[in-house]
Design goal:
The complex is a heterodimer of chains A (240) and B (352). Chain A is globular and about 45 Å long. Chain A has a domain of 135 residues: P-loop containing nucleotide triphosphate hydrolases (Rossmann fold, 3-Layer(aba) Sandwich), CATH 3.40.50.300. Chain A is built from 10 helices and 10 strands. Chain A has a 6-stranded mixed beta sheet, sandwiched between helices. In chain A, strands 2-1-4-5 form a 4-stranded antiparallel beta sheet, covered by helices on one side. Chain A is of the alpha/beta class. Chain B is mainly alpha-helical and 352 residues long. Chain B has a single domain, classed as ABC transporter involved in vitamin B12 uptake, BtuC (Orthogonal Bundle), CATH 1.10.3470. The longest helix of chain B has 27 residues. Chain B starts with a helix and ends with a helix. The chains are: A alpha/beta (240), B mainly alpha (352). The interface between A and B is medium-sized, with 20 and 19 residues.
Chain lengths: 240, 352
């Protein structure tokens, strides 16, 4: 296994009186796609938000490039090289697509080559480049959300359910873009409920249940073992 | 050229462009278009309040921060000029020193309030600004030796800016220092408004809008939300203080009622809402309509009451003393019919 870009070491996170994460341990290898899987409500989104700092871990360490970032503010974590695509898209609806993309670049102007790649991957964004992002469809908003996170080269991308609720055609556009990102050697931690996408993209998988990691290993191993899938997630990947 | 001057932020509606042009022409030519002292005084107030309301729009409309301390910053600028003119004597140096000192004091106070309270929930920030503004108003009243207390301060401004300075005639209008003073106010207000327009259309302004929409998202991209909010508060405070300085130069008097009262704060809120939040041009329309109504509604009602004296009930309802009631009704109607403000509505119509 290549050296980890991110390590979660015994992370506990509470939200109000609820103990959501209860000793999460896993690593994200550099240059690979790590799938974070599990049933609804097991703490996958909370894990991403804890890494990003929206929820502060009560104890444990989050090592990014070997440095504990658990006490750092969210913006500092982002500037350290973590890009985040939240589940709720989080686009800025009053701003144009172009302005959203420019906002995604915190260290300089939008690189022309990168812009061309993103607009080729998500052609709808080129069409609505000067339009207010609030007027885009759900799928287009999700494309913008991902494109904005990719507007600048980051060392690690945290992506939360990018294909959730999208039409099949848009899912394949999204999957293709993520595949291209993977081919560029990006490190990605991806929460994904669409197993065919997960199977196609994932190098390794981490399965969570009840706020803790219950299995981690190669994606191919999980994809090829129906019993393991049933045991860990209560359903087979083939069902999707 | 014009696009550059407006920082690429065009009115985006023909009707809005026409209204803005009309206001600009009326304000630019006020000394020559209207007779008497009152219209000139109204025009000067409109210029100053456009800047004051626009600076509040930067805070409320662009950064999504509710503050009740805006009149405090306005007052700091006004008292800066008043105190400098009182202690340094009449002169442009006193006006400059007073304006700069007032703006600096506003920035320092805004920075302190911002750093202490912008990390917390918006409602706490609003409450803290309310408390600080009330405390400053009380202090100004109490330190009467310095501030003149409730009576305020009267002082002298450079003679060249007063009516005593007569400079001949132009286009049938006698040119005096008062007109020079008006143009000082007009051009300073225009420059400050264009500067605010530049700020909200800069990358900084876009980040503020992003923070207003979703502060965690902006933070997760890498923008320090507290820093940006504090910077917006400081910029807004400095501009409000400069508007206060202009007001002090125009009035040659400052007092708690004219610069620090909570009533002015409410007026600013109404002007922003009526004009349209987060548009900047809303400040122009809101301030113009509001001050015109404040100044002339009573007279208009007097005329209407006279004209309808043969009818039942109506003359009583139109009694000039009831002008505040009608002002209230006009505001309720404008908020009802223009929920996104007049500018928002005109732009929506332009799109359709």
């Amino acid at each position: 296994m290549s050296d980890p870009i991110l390590t979660l070491d015994n992370i506990y996170t509470d939200i109000a009186q609820y103990h959501i994460l209860q000793g999460v341990n896993f690593t994200v290898p550099r240059g690979q796609v790590t799938m974070l899987l599990g049933r609804n409500g097991v703490g996958k989104t909370t894990t991403l938000k804890t890494i990003m700092g929206q929820w502060r871990a009560k104890s444990g360490a989050i090592l990014f490039e070997g440095r504990d970032i658990n006490t750092l503010p969210t913006a500092t974590r982002a500037r350290a090289g973590i890009g985040f695509v939240p589940e709720d898209m989080g686009i800025f609806g009053d701003l144009t697509v172009e302005e959203n993309m420019i906002l995604g670049c915190t260290s300089g102007p939008l690189d022309a080559v990168r812009k061309d790649w993103l607009l080729a991957a998500f052609p709808a964004l080129a069409t609505f480049w000067k339009s207010e992002a609030g007027n885009l469809s759900g799928g287009q908003k999700q494309m913008l959300s991902i494109a904005r996170a990719l507007a600048e080269d980051r060392q690690l991308y945290l992506i939360d359910e990018p294909t959730k609720g999208l039409a099949p055609a848009i899912v394949s556009t999204m999957a293709q873009a993520l595949r291209e990102l993977k081919e560029q050697g990006a490190s990605i931690l991806l929460v994904e409920q669409n197993f065919s996408v997960a199977r196609a993209l994932g190098d390794s998988a981490v399965v969570m249940d009840d706020g803790a990691v219950v299995w981690s290993g190669a994606m191919a191993e999980l994809a090829g073992n129906k019993d393991l899938q049933e045991q860990l997630m209560g359903l087979s990947m083939e069902a999707h | 050229m014009l696009t550059k001057l407006l920082s690429g932020d065009q009115p985006r509606s023909r009707a809005l462009t026409a209204i803005l042009l009309l206001i600009l022409i009326c304000l630019a030519g006020a000394p020559f278009l209207f007779d008497g002292v009152r219209p000139l005084d109204t025009a000067a107030r409109i210029c100053i309040f456009i800047v004051l309301v626009a600076s509040y729009d930067l805070l409320l409309g662009y950064a999504g921060i509710v503050s009740f301390a805006h009149t405090m910053f306005f007052g700091l600028g006004a008292y800066g000029v008043a105190l400098a003119s009182t202690h340094m004597g009449r002169g442009f140096d006193a006006l400059i020193v007073g304006s700069v000192a007032g703006a600096l004091a506003a920035v320092v106070l805004a920075l302190m309030i911002g750093l202490f309270s912008l990390r917390v929930r918006a409602i706490f920030f609003a409450m803290i600004t309310l408390a600080v503004a009330s405390a400053v108003a009380v202090l100004v009243s109490q330190f009467s030796g310095l501030t003149g207390g409730e009576d305020g301060l009267t002082y002298k401004i450079p003679r060249v800016l007063t009516s005593a300075n007569r400079m001949g005639e132009f286009l049938g209008t006698r040119i005096s220092g008062k007109i020079l003073n008006y143009y000082l106010i007009f051009f300073a207000s225009l420059a400050l408004f264009l500067l605010l327009l530049r700020i909200v259309n800069s990358p900084f302004g876009r980040v503020l809008q992003a923070i207003r929409e979703n502060d965690f998202r902006a933070e997760a991209i890498g923008y320090r939300v507290v820093w940006y909010r504090t910077a917006a508060t400081c910029l807004s405070a400095a501009t409000a203080a400069l508007a206060g300085s202009l007001f002090a130069i125009w009035l040659r008097y400052v007092g708690p009622d004219t610069t620090l009262s909570f009533e002015i704060m409410l007026d600013i809120l109404l002007m922003v809402v009526i004009g349209g939040m987060g548009t900047m041009y809303g400040a122009v329309i809101g301030a113009t309509l509001f001050i015109m109504a404040q100044t002339y509604l009573q007279n208009l009602m007097g005329v209407a009451s006279e004209a309808t004296h043969n009818l039942p009930l109506l003359p009583h309802l139109l009694e000039p003393d009831r002008w505040l009631m009608w002002l209230g009704i006009l505001f309720i109607l404008s908020v009802y019919f223009f929920p996104t403000g007049i500018v928002g509505r005109l732009r929506e119509r332009g799109k359709a």
